[in-house]
Design brief:
Number of helices: 3
Number of strands: 0
Shape: elongated
Order of helices and strands: HHH
Helix content: 40-55%
Strand content: under 5%
């Protein structure tokens, strides 16, 4: 409140200070451009299904051949939600 009475909405409470300004930036067109560049960089031969299949194979290899202690730790991490549940309940599944 100023010495001259209450201030209007959007007016600063203290003399010499400017009122807040609503500032917004729409980045949707930039996001579409970014996605177009990513797809262009991947090229026409990129196969997302093959990429996912390769990722699954890598996870299978990563968690295969665990000893009993490692398997127990893996199972605990799955139960805690740290690692995703995979296959039939065994790390190599």
């Amino acid at each position: 409140m100023s010495s001259q009475g209450p201030t209007a909405p959007g007016e600063p409470d203290r003399p010499g200070m400017s009122a807040p300004v609503d500032f917004g930036v729409d980045l949707s067109s930039h996001e579409m451009l970014r996605r177009a560049h990513v797809l262009e960089a991947l090229g026409p031969d990129w196969d997302p299904v093959a990429a996912l299949r390769g990722e699954e194979e890598a996870y299978t290899l990563l968690y295969s051949g665990l000893d009993a202690k490692q398997q127990r730790l893996y199972d605990e991490l799955v139960e805690a939600g740290v690692l995703p549940r995979r296959g039939g309940g065994d790390a190599a599944a």
